[in-house]
Design brief:
- The chain is of the alpha/beta class and 354 residues long.
- The protein is built from 12 helices and 12 strands.
- It has 2 domains: 259 residues, Rossmann fold (3-Layer(aba) Sandwich), CATH 3.40.50.300; 69 residues, no CATH class.
- Helix 5 packs across helix 6, helix 5 runs parallel beside helix 7 and helix 7 runs parallel beside helix 8.
- Bound molecules: adenosine-5'-triphosphate, iron/sulfur cluster and magnesium ion.
- The site of adenosine-5'-triphosphate (ATP) has 13 residues, from strand 2 and helix 2.
- Magnesium ion binds next to helix 2.
Length: 354
């Protein structure tokens, strides 16, 4: 397929307009065995995600360990190539762009990693680390790379004097700030932040989250924020997508999701979150999910959550519930959703007694 010039010069959407659209995104990692390395199966890490992200918003991806969040982030930033499906950024299909064609886009779409220790080269100075994107992308700066790096350090709350120091001289929170400075160097439009604060002390998590929020406002950034816990993203998300075993099981506005969760998995995740607010009418009992997440190599058929769901019926084991909009902007994939509006067809169908 050839790419036309107009496809190569995308327009930046206005705030609130779609910047990223994902359709049927799949990533299966083949499992190979034997001397011939024959494929004997696949890890179904991401298995059919469809969602969009609008410019300036924060969409959070939440779910337990192994449900495919990082793989999704790596697909969106094209550190991985999808097995199937489509990723469109600013109107341009980037799903299968080669490294050469991706290069200019690497400026626009960046990733912040979970581990502020592992993602910074210990042998490089802060100046070299934060300045690397300028050199890699051959970007000219007005007053030189050093000045640009020092400005970035100030922007993320570090001192320009930290330029010649090494990562080990900093605390975890400061290292994450260095990582954020590096990410911001080329003024990206979309940032995928993979559990940016989960490796940090609880006491400094809020500071880094606040920094990300301030930067979003200042630079009209769009975030896809990854977290395994609904409490971390409660205040920063505009919308939340809950993932389970490679699929989105619920996607809604933050307020709808936290106050009227429809998918039993979301309800269970929320019941584990300490809730200080008084808005929730009755105190919710903690729902303990049985067992671990099943293996994505051989996930349960139909509704993948049925092996752990307290509402599961026979139909859940044989018919996959599609992700459908049950209230405006509120999508859920469940045969027997909770908190559904009373006027939907699903609500009037026979409900199991719980
Ligand atoms: N390169 C790879 N090759 C094979 N399997 C992989 C690869 N990367 C990820 N996986 C598998 O895909 C599944 C999803 O992994 P992923 O890292 O995306 O989950 P996650 O939701 O980010 O989990 P966590 O909360 O632990 O970070 C896991 O079973 C993981 O072992
Ligand atoms: S479809 Fe069935 S098993 Fe799946 S979440 Fe809904 S009630 Fe539970
Ligand atoms: Mg992960």
């Amino acid at each position: 397929m050839t790419t036309t010039d107009s496809e190569l010069t995308p327009k930046t959407p206005k705030l609130g307009e779609e910047i990223l659209s994902v359709t049927g995104l799949v990533k299966h990692f083949p499992i190979r065995k034997g001397v011939l390395q024959r494929q004997v199966g696949a890890v179904q890490a991401v298995d059919g995600l469809t969602f969009n992200v609008t410019r300036g918003e924060t969409l959070s991806l939440v779910g337990e360990s192994g449900c495919g969040k990082t793989t999704t982030g790596r697909l969106l930033t094209r550190l991985e190539t999808p097995t199937d499906g489509k990723i469109v950024f600013e109107g341009r299909d980037i799903s299968h762009l080669g490294e050469g064609r991706m290069r200019p886009l690497r400026r626009d779409v960046q990733m912040i990693f979970q581990d502020p220790y592992g993602s910074l080269n210990p042998r490089h100075t802060v100046g070299k680390i934060v300045g690397a994107p300028f050199r890699l992308q051959h970007v000219k700066t007005e007053h030189g790379v050093k000045k640009a790096v020092q400005e970035l350090l100030e922007l993320v709350g570090l001192s320009p004097e930290h330029y010649n120091r090494y990562p080990h001289e900093f605390s975890g929170g400061q290292r994450q700030r260095i990582g954020i400075a590096r990410t911001l160097a080329l003024r990206p439009k979309l940032i995928v932040a993979d559990e940016p604060v989960s490796a940090l002390d609880v006491s400094i998590q809020a500071q880094v989250v606040n920094l990300l929020e301030d930067l979003q406002e200042e630079f009209d950034l769009t975030y896809v924020m990854i977290a395994h816990d609904l409490s971390v993203v409660r205040h920063v998300s505009d919308r939340v997508a809950v993932m389970y075993l490679g699929k989105i099981v619920e996607l809604a506005d933050r307020v709808d999701l936290y106050e009227k969760p429809m998918h039993p998995y979301t309800v269970a995740l929320l019941s584990a979150v300490p809730v200080p607010d008084t808005k929730r009418k009755k105190k919710q009992e903690r729902i303990r999910l049985q067992g671990d997440v099943p293996s994505p190599i051989n996930p349960p058929p139909a509704c993948r959550f049925h092996t752990r769901c307290w509402k599961a019926q026979d139909i859940c084991k044989s018919v996959e519930p599609p992700l459908v909009e049950l209230a405006p902007g509120h999508q859920t994939a469940c045969h027997f959703p909770e908190n559904q509006p009373t006027d939907t067809p699903a609500a009037t169908a026979d409900q199991p007694k719980s």
